[in-house]
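Pipeline run #58 for the internal structure catalog. This entry was flagged by the ingest filter as a single-chain record with no existing model, so it goes straight to prediction. Upstream metadata was stripped on purpose; only the residue string is passed forward. Reviewer on rotation: M.T. Logging verbosity set to normal.
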Amino acid sequence: MMLAPLIAMALAASGPKSEADSAYEQTLIDWGLQLHGVELEPDPEGKRIDGVLTAREDVFAQSDPVPTWLNVFHGRTREHVVLREVLLEKGAVWSQKLADETERNLRSLVIIAVAKVVAVKSPEGGVTVLVITKDRWSFRANWDYLVVGSVLERLHVPITEVNLLGQGIEVTLDPYLRRDTFQLGEEVIWRRFLDTKLRLREDLGLVINRVNSRLEGSFGVVQVGQPLLSLQQKWGFNVFAVWDVRRVRIFRGRTVWSLGYPDDAHPTTQVPYIYDQRQVDVAALGTRQFGSEYISRVSAGIGGYAHLYQPPAETPLSPDVSAWFISTRLPRSEDAAYLYGEWSFFRARYVQKHDLETFGLTEDLQLGPRLLVAARWAVPVIAKSSFVELGATVRWTFLLGDDVLALSGAATSRFQIGGPIVNERYTAEVTNWSPPFEGGRFVTRVLGDFRARDLDNGVFVLGAGGGLRGTPSGALVGRNMVLGNFEYRTRPFNITTLLAGLVLFYDVGTAFDVKPAFTHTVGAGLRILIPQLNTQVIRLDLGFVLADPDSTLSVDRLSSTFGQVTQIRPDFLDDPI
């Protein structure tokens, strides 16, 4: 724990200023002030809070180019649902730090599109807290998709009521179309069970083969927890059980990847990359939070899992081919019971920016370090597995004038009792958003992900859907990956309240086992945001492979999905174990 004070001493005491509210947000603030007939308090810090008011706007306001009668199909968020997230209380004193944290908490709710907390003049001599929110459409298809050329890699259209009865309860019917299967699930998330801090979740679903309509598996989650909802909260916990039983097919392009045995250079037979998986995971964790500006979190608990991966019983593989397939291509089958511990540290230093990953909406940027160190000790009590896994991540974000620079890294290894070190993985990422230039920004991201002695036989399948735009789906494969994205993003242009922008890009990437061979692409794209419905932009890109005589204008060069390309990043950078 001595590391936290040393890091804290190394950080600068002064903090950068947040950007001004966008025109879209300022319109809502003006509406809230007019609604209550109040004026902004220019110097509220330290003044007594005489009361708390809310101004809760529907999804479609008078300023939106959509008929407001559509709001009758939406249950506006209840006042107590907004107020339970407010950290400023009557009788206390105004703190801009708590006002900013309240905004962050509200913006993290999927039911809220915009959240602003301002101080207004009070007739009693102090200040009144005015919380201004605008709902996001609650009955919605929170759809996600990925199209590369003429290949629909996924279409996920969960039909969700995210604000049932205005209480913030999320109920979902969850159809998910993949190239080989159709999933049908349902999910219920009650983020504030009976207005407490408890979070309940259950998720159940079936997996059906699209060719023969047979049931191929099922999946589910049962979870109860108390997440850390503010920097002032001291305790939290998480208890969950997860299972996922299904047939897995690994695709390259339009077809299942065909593996050459004993190798691709001199194959004697071809093996389809298909296997059956059975995953069951359970865990119970508790968390204690320390500090107010420099935050430390200590988590500990127990867990266990049973993972089985095997070729389909009906696949005609000889014993030698089956053994090769299991040892070189399938994840490791393993049962384990473990003790888990984790320490994380970050500085609660935030600024508000615009037009980094979305358009026109406030984006909360945590500056300074964010570290996580985790350990898992598999104890040979219930299961025979015995090992220690260690993992760590670090992200350090700098604000240099109007330039944002983020450095990230992660590493993990498994130490087997009496055996070699295995499951080594090392990942690094550098991302930079330049100051505004001609109304837009230059954005750069370089990502490297490397594995060694990997018992799980992980492989990267890199193509347009993975960030190397202009290449076919699954164009490159390998156990290591390097990707660079270089963009110029224009500022968003308002078309009524819809926001749109253009992108010019250059990508370079490779996936490899031993020696990298880089592919270079260039192209242009369109970004669209409908803030009433989503915070992520719709991304449409057209790319061309450099030095490729076959790289002509065709539908195969197009790719489209949600989110900026810099939002495609491995989960490993946040959770190393």
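catalog note: The chain has three domains: 17-135, 138-142+153-331, 344-577.
catalog note: The two ends are 21 Å apart (CA to CA).
status: ready for reviewer M.T.
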